[in-house]
Amino acid sequence: MQGSPSTTGERLLRLPDVELRTGLKKSAIYAGMKQGTFPPGVKLGQRATAWSETSIAVWIEAKISAAVRSRT
Fold this sequence. Notes:
Layout: H1 5-8, E1 12-14, H2 15-22, H3 26-35, E2 42-45, E3 48-52, H4 53-71
Antiparallel strand pairs: 1-3, 2-3
């Protein structure tokens, strides 16, 4: 199956993992999603949301790059 996790290596991260990786709490994550400044989640079910590991990594890199640029 093309694009499946086994061929792309893509993983979905649940909220606790996203919080650990970003340093943000649930309220900040959802506020960022609403403002369009944080990657949208993927609905897995009625009460389950996950985020693409890649989208979180890209968001983190963008934050680091912006911080470095602002120092120069």
